[in-house]
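Quick one: Cell surface protein from Methanosarcina vacuolata Z-761, C-alpha cells please.
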Amino acid sequence: MGNKTIYLSLALIFLISFTSIANAGKETRVVASRLTLDLSIYGNIVTWAETTTDTAWMYNLTTGNITRLGHAGNSPVIQGDKITWWDYDKNIIVYNISTGKEIKIVGANTPSIYGDNVVYVRSKYEDGQPASHQNDESNSLYLYNLSTNEETQLTPYEHARFYPSIYGNKIVWGRANQVNSGEWSSNISIYDIPTKRVSDISRTGTAAGGEIYGNIVVWVEQKNESRDIYMRDIAKHETRQVTFDNNSTSADIYGDRIVWEREYWIGNNFSSDIYMYNISTNETTRITNSTCAGDPAIYNDKIIYVDTRDDPESQEYRDIYLYNLSA
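--- reply ---
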C-alpha cells in the first residue's frame, strides 16, 4: 500500500511538471456545421467533410468565404494551393485553389498530397484485375505526379494498406496483417521514394493511423482498450511515447507540435478535449476545456477541431473551432 502511494505521488508530480493548461491564445468558432469530420488546415484554408450533405467544404479564415468543393467528398486534405478528396465511387479529385481546375484519378481512395505528388490506395479488383479477384481485398500504394501525369505503383498488392500520408520524399501508412482467422495485427510502414525502400516504424501489431512531418512520424498505439500516442524520429532512429493516459486518439503534427484528442469520462458522461505536445521541450498542454472537442488538425500556431458544446447530447452539431496560439 505504501509503494502504491509513492507511485501515485510521483505520477502526480510528473503531471504537474509536464502538463499545463493553455493560458495564451484565443478560441473562436469559425464555422457552424453538422456531422463534421476529417478536418485539415494549411495557411488560412480549412477543409472538412460533412456527412449530412455528403460534401467536401473549404473555408477561408481571412475572407470568411465558404466554398462547396464536391459531392460525396470523403477525407479532404489540403497542402499548398491544392486540395484532394475521394468520392463514393472511389474516384480521387485534386482541386487547384488558384486556378479552380480539377483532376480526377479513377478507381482509387484515401489520398494524401505533398507538392505535385498524390499518394493513394488502389484495390486489386478495382485496378482492372480478373473477376476472380472480386472478393480479394488486397490493395497497393500508388503515386501520381501532377506535373508529368504519371502514375507509379509503389508496393505489391497486400491485404489492407490504408490511409497513407506523405511529406517530401517519404510516405507512411498503416498495414494490417491477418495473424489467423478473425485475428489481425497492424504496423506503421514507411516508403522512401528515391530509394524505393520499405521499412517498418512500428512492429507492435497494434498501431493505427500515421502522420508525418519532416523526420517525425506520429501514430496511435492500441492495446486492448488502451490507446496512446507515439512518435518516431526516423533520422535519429528514436521512438518516444507521447501520452500515458490510455485514452488518446486522432493525432496530427506540424513542426515541433503534436495535437490529439484525449477521451475520458465525467461520471456517466463521455467527454473529450484537445491536447498539444511540444517535441523540443517535452511539455504537454491542454488546449480546450469544453469536454466536447475532438478531431484536431494543426498548422503553425493554428489548431482547428470540432466541438459539440451546443449539442452535447446528440453531438449532431459539430461546429469547427480555431485555437490561435499566437493571438
